[in-house]
């Protein structure tokens, strides 16, 4: 078992409530069943930080008020312990769980390597999409939509601009799917045999120490100058798949920019793009159709006798 202790916002749907919704979805969707964390018990402390602020005479004490949660889960393994085909298989399971939850109204909004876990049952590795404390419900009246959430090194480029950081860009499904791509590259290039490579021999360290806008600049440079790091251990098929994924991201970004320019020329006010379920399926399918995804999805051959 493992305990999670954190201060959650009072006006946000709590993680235990979110997991209750996830559990209901899991009853009817195989892509979610067995791919979400098992909450064993939880406790919410009744005194929020607003009580302390009010006692101290802090102005507007209820703004950003938080309450202490303790959640106990069944222990899982981190995805960074995996590599090559096993890494890809667990990563895909998390993507398929995520897209089903999104369509059913549970928006994760914080895709990172730390939130992708796994366990083994009957010799099969089961991917688990973990950590719902920053998630939102599509019909929840609390904070959501343009609220900028996520872990900076893995956030979509559109969310790392100043406007997005000010809450002026709607958080969409494609942003979370892009985060999955950054996560895959991060793990594949920085870990070997489940261990983090030594400092100086792994890329992207500066992404984790930069502010959002600076990180966006560095990630955009990587996207425009794709080159396997020197002395990299990465399997050629995985690197080819990463290149395909970022090529798709770049193409989609270019197409959106052209569309924006055309709107500006027509004198139209740019607006946050809404997504249909068809848009979501189409975006995901583009990645599933890449040669790398198809090759990595094939069952592993049994070793010769």
Automatic annotation (TrEMBL):
Which GO MF term does the entry hold, naming one?
ATP binding
Which SUPFAM superfamilies did the record assign? Protein kinase-like (PK-like)
Where on the tree of life does the source sit, at the highest rank? Eukaryota
Residue ranges annotated for the Protein kinase domain, each copy included? 1-305
Pfam families assigned to the protein according to its UniProt record, in alphabetical order: Pkinase_fungal
Q: What is this protein called?
A: Protein kinase domain-containing protein
Question: Which taxonomic lineage is given here?
Answer: Eukaryota, Fungi, Dikarya, Basidiomycota, Agaricomycotina
């Amino acid at each position: 078992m493992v305990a999670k202790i954190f201060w959650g916002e009072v006006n946000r749907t709590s993680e235990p409530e979110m997991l209750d919704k996830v559990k209901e979805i899991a009853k009817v969707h195989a892509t979610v069943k067995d791919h979400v964390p098992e909450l064993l018990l939880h406790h919410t402390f009744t005194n929020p930080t607003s009580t302390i602020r009010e006692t101290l005479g802090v102005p507007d004490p209820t703004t950003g008020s938080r309450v202490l949660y303790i959640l106990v889960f069944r222990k899982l393994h981190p995805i960074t312990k995996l590599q090559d085909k096993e890494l890809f298989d667990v990563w895909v399971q998390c993507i398929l769980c995520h897209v089903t939850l999104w369509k059913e109204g549970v928006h994760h909004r914080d895709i990172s390597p730390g939130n992708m876990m796994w366990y083994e049952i009957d010799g099969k590795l089961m991917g688990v999409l973990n950590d719902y404390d920053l998630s939102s419900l599509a019909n929840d009246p609390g904070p959501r939509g343009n609220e900028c959430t996520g872990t900076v090194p893995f956030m979509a480029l559109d969310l790392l601009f100043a406007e997005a950081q000010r809450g002026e860009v709607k958080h969409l499904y494609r942003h979370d799917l892009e985060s999955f791509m950054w996560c895959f590259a991060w793990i594949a290039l920085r870990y070997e045999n489940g261990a983090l490579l030594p400092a100086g021999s792994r890329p992207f360290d500066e992404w984790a120490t930069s502010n959002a806008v600076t990180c966006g600049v560095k990630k955009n440079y990587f996207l425009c100058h794709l080159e396997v790091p020197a002395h990299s251990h990465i399997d050629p098929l995985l690197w080819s798949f990463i290149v395909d994924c970022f090529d798709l991201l770049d193409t989609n970004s270019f197409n959106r920019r052209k569309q924006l320019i055309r709107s500006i020329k027509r004198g139209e006010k740019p607006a946050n793009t809404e997504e249909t379920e068809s848009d979501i399926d189409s975006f995901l399918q583009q990645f599933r159709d890449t040669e790398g995804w198809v090759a990595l999805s094939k069952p592993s051959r049994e070793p010769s006798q």
